[in-house]
Amino acid sequence: MLVLHGTGVSSGIAIGKAYVLHRERPEVPEYALPEHLIEDEVRRFNSAIATARTQLERIRNHIPKSAPPEISSIIDTHLLILHDKMISEAPVVTMRQKQCNAEWALKTQSDLLAAVFEQMDDPYLRSKKTDVSQVVDRILRNLLMSTDEEHEQITDALDGQIVVANDLTPADTVLLKHTRIGAFVTNLGGPISHTAILARSLEIPAIVAVHNATRYIRNGEDLIVDGKLGVLVVAAERSIVAEYQRRQKDIVHLKRELETIKASRSETRDGCAIILNANIELPDDIKAATKVAAQGIGLYRTEFLYMNRPDLPGEEEQYKAYAKVAKAVAGKPVTIRTLDLGADKRVDGGSRGSDTVTINPALGLRAVRLCLHDTSLFRPQLRAILRASAHGQVRLMIPMLSSLGEMFRVLDLIEETKAELKHKNEPFDSELQVGGMIEVPAAAVSADLFAPHLDFLSIGTNDLIQYTLAIDRVDEAVNYLYDPLHPSVLRLIAMTIRAGKSAGIPVAMCGEMAGDARYTRLLLGLGLSEFSMHPSALLEIKKIVRESDLAELRRFADKVLDTRDTSELHALVDKMNES
Ligand code: PEP
Ligand code: MG
After folding, report:
1. pTM
2. What pLDDT score was predicted for residue 358?
3. Which residues are known catalytic residues?
């Protein structure tokens, strides 16, 4: 029996067989071949291509009918790339000219293509580089592996198995949802990476930052995942398995208990109403939000509509998706966040490969910056959101604001879009509420400057913590520095809440901190009255709200803000949670 530790990012217990994904780029050998062997080498290359085609077609046939169309789109893109002359023919020319082996000819061609993609101005086309590299890796593995070593693909059905991988992108995680996996474990990753957030919202138990998990674990080995404590047990003894089975039953029992407060009001003991909303990533997630009686959608991460597909969603497709959500929640507010692509969220689900440039993408052209840089990407989305506002209580939210200038440019674009729609007689809500995310420290510090121009603010603690503490949210090496209770983070949160109150606009929180039971009472004490979180956390948070006395928590929160000593601060928060 072996016990490994990592960071538990999505609670729950899973017991199942390991399914190890080896997706690191294989080592590519280079050697010269005598002329008479070149045609054999070409045949070997063509056969690897044919195998790749069969594999991709098989994967496509295994995709469940219920899966969204973007899942088969990614496979179609790979098939198109596979058939492109640049991949299927150019390496053959190199083999014949340079008399080299197939792997090397393919690698040379793939390096050339990567350089071409890298120079493209269009960020969308530039990101297609990852698709090409995934197809090249597939062919390389076919060339390097013996035929019985059938390599993995995460789009196969994986009922109950535990995926072990070096790293998973948010797009991978969306794909995993449809394979019915039991849990996942990765060598890399952090607790507020988008992959971790998705795991929580999909209710997939998950542990990240288990160093060398892919090295120690073999395919088919028996695993136990405790996603809360971050414990991974390999080949557990029978008594240990029985203990975890018992804990699984306890979790089911607890969930049933929480069900009983579903219909109860969300208010504190002293009668203050607290809004509990849900975060969603795809229109289908509405079902989970409705199941826990969320009062609305506090964050709809629209970028997931752009992932795992070869093309961009057009205005019409976006309009249908947003209108579907607006109608499905029937009169409750839906906060549609405009595109937050960039950083770890790519259009094509590309992973952070070793070939990625080393500049920090989290500080780059992301979210509202990308949208303002390329308004041809942004305008269709604004039109789609405005049109969807005719079908329900839609609110528009701008991510990653860091300057007033950005906010004014977006507000102008919204006004222009309204005029355009009016001209075309397209219905929309002329009173559409527009809010801003406070997730960059600069915006938190100047929240009082933003607030008078917006209808609401929403604190994105995932990025706020990342940028305040200078810790990359996907880098496991700095996970230990992640601390929502860091005094600087708490001060920025308090400042934002105060700024909203002075301007008379609501302040919500939609980062992971809002769905973490350890911080609910402190946030209530700081004056937060609107929380948005993954649906699976909502009832637990409601239970805490209903057992809290706001007047008492306010006194505690003031003390927390005044406390200088970290351990004293943590002790105070613990005391708050016990009160
Ligand atoms: C956040 O940063 O807290 C947030 C809610 O946005 P995202 O996690 O999508 O970056
Ligand atoms: Mg964010």
Report:
1. 0.77
2. 44
3. 194, 510
